[in-house]
Amino acid sequence: MIGFFIALISGALMSVQGVFNTQVTKSSSIWVANAFVQFTALLVCILAWLFTDRSSFGALFKVEPKYMLLGGAIGAFITYTVIKSMELLGPAKAVMLIVIAQLAVAYVIELLGWFGTEKQPFEWRKVIGMLIAIGGVVIFKWEN
User: Fold this and answer.
1) Listed residue (20, 37, 24) closest to 77, CA to CA
2) CA-CA to 34 of 20 to 30 Å: which in 13, 60, 83, 88?
């Protein structure tokens, strides 16, 4: 149950962050805003590390396969694409499309067992759920 609430908090924070970042971009540029976001995230992570676990950064050199270390670089592009989509579509439409894309890609990753995930069997109910979500976007976007 705690995972459910953490996921809800994550979604809410992502939406708020996207709006904040889009507003910061209006006063600077998208890459300046993105750099600031990543830098402040680094500071928060270092402070959290100092007060919580203090495990060795050397463990990062043991990560295999090495491409798994690209999460931060991917994060920079996530921030960029969230800012641009919110700027061009508005927060609600952008977040709906982002969530559907996350769901679809996550399901493909599970189906194929990519990146070390446990391979899951195909289930029509999950595909139907995604189609319903896509239908929700169409209804939400529908203008009279």
Assistant:
1) 37
2) 60
96, 139 in Cβ contact below 8 A? no
Locate the domains of the chain by residue range: 1-89, 90-144
| CA contacts within 13 A on the Cβ side of 60 | 9
For residue 33, the 8-state DSSP code is: H
Across 116-125, average pLDDT: 94
* Helices assigned H by DSSP within the chain: 2-27, 30-51, 71-89, 91-112, 124-141
CB 97 within 8 A of CB 141: no
Mean of all residue pLDDT scores within the chain: 92
Query: How many Cβ atoms sit within 10 Å of the Cβ of residue 41?
Result: 14
